[in-house]
Amino acid sequence: MGITGTRSIGRILYGLAFTVALPVTLVLWARSLDRQFDLPAYQSITGGAILTALGVLIWITGVVQIIRRGHGLPMNAFPPARFVSSGIYHVIAHPIYFGWVVACAGVSWTTGSASGLWIVTPVVALACAALVYGFERPDLRRRFGSEAASFRPWLSLPPDDERPPTFAERFSFMFVVLAPWLLAYTAVKELGVPPDAFDIRLDAEKNWPVLLWTVPIYVSAYLMVPLAAFLVPTRAALRRMAEQAVAATVVLSIIYLTVPVIAPFRPFDPAGPLGWVLALDQKYANPPVAAWPAFHVVWAAFVAGALSRRSRGWALVGWIWAAAVAVSCVTTGMHAVADIPAAMAFVLLLWHPVRAWRATLDAAERLANSWHAWRLGPIRIINHGIYPGLAALVGVGGMVALAGPDAWPGVMMLATFALVGAALWAQWADAATTVQRPFGYYGAVVGGCLGTIASGAFGQPTAIILAAAATMSPWIQALGRLRCLVQGCCHGAPVDPRFGIRVANEHSRVVSLSHLSGQSIHPTQVYSIAGNIAIGVLLLRLWNLQAPIWFISGAYLVLAGLARFVEEGHRGEPQTRQWLGMPIYQALSIASVFAGMALTSLGGPSAPPPSTLADVRLLSTALAAGVVYWFAMGVDFPESTRRFARLSG
Prior knowledge:
9 strands
């Protein structure tokens, strides 16, 4: 069979995978999850069918225009010859993925599948985003250069310049910023009050009167937020408000999902028009979740900041209005007092997301150039060993706390096998001529699983230990990535200096192996830390809600796989093996996602309540693991040529 025949078969298989195998898999996955969870279910055959048809129409339009205008197929493995920026692509950058997500939501609504709506559809959306940011976007810029890099569809953030925004740019704010915020906020509300929710109000404020005359101030935010997009004087001001809102939507949505705080509305007499308005607001704002921190205050501050760009007069009026909105949150009884300072703290944190990100990168750059070592005869103690030691201490301690003190032998076996697996894996996948003791993440995963299975022979609760390991793994990796920064492993590919870090320490692998000294590179370790913190928070919340243990283990593999896929798309290590046109770790990330989906379908018993941290078995196991990992990843013998002797050059 010639190359042409092989490519034709490849196209057919690729098409069948996305149009037949994947939809069938998602339907089966949703059905299995529906049997496990009691999530809010919504069904409308008419509404769902319309939404599904809309998604399919958008999807088909994107496919047809890629074929006609791109002279190729919408397949990343067999990409089109031309870059398409007209038609529906002029409106939205990725209509095929957008339509696919809309169709998933539509099918879930049509069939009344709660898991399809609350789990499968969000995972599909995350997977599409991972595919875009981890593969397709870098690939487009590599193949089409400035044509792809400068492309800006209608539904995107405006350029960062001082020209007035066009009407289209102002109007797109509604879809790019407000619609996702509204969707996220409504979703949290629809999930309802969690079983472990607690009232954050002070006893004294529960009986404070509701001041109806402040209702117009409170509800004015509903008008001012969209109106602000048409009042900001420059594209830079509009873009900054959009960046602030997007960052706040992501961060606060995670907080709303993981911190079980409620602020019940204070009772009042709904007499008169203002009483009717407040009653209506309470009806649609019920249940009283997603209140801490108050997004009302966050929005008001962002709007005031954007309007301040017009003039000092606008700034004065804007900030007085924002302060009044903050006060009205309490006087109308819609929020607790504690919701307000918490919101102000996040306003300060997210006030300038780009500067905050740059400050984070500057700190990462200082850490990346901090390699230092001490000699004790033939022994070298490297400063980065403290991070894996701390990661093991926290991770193993957390695992024993979650699985129970009696599970400490199994956890110790898991930690030992994970370390051995990581070392052996890296010898095959990542070994370099000047580094004799590298470690690999996927080897740790395989080794840890084998160690846990082996512990079952000694009566250890393997499923619970694996779930505990999955819950603590994001925290282990987040701390461990600090070592990667110092050592220079897992580093990024070259990038625009505005978005990268520079490493010049001669002991860093960025310099000694990749020869990228002084060049700006993607801070991929920072990407990994951010992703793992988000995943870790969500998994701890699942454990506290006593979710099925196999679901927790599977959720980790799904989310970690998606995050690693994106990270890998920006890494730049020359020794990484390639497979099927992508780094082998991206292929493993995809396998991780599907393995996780399978595990989540198993269900299993509920996660047990965490035990106390003040247990001698927990503390001694965690301390022992910390010392072993510190030695393995921070102490070496630089003059030796034996395998596993040297950590870095």
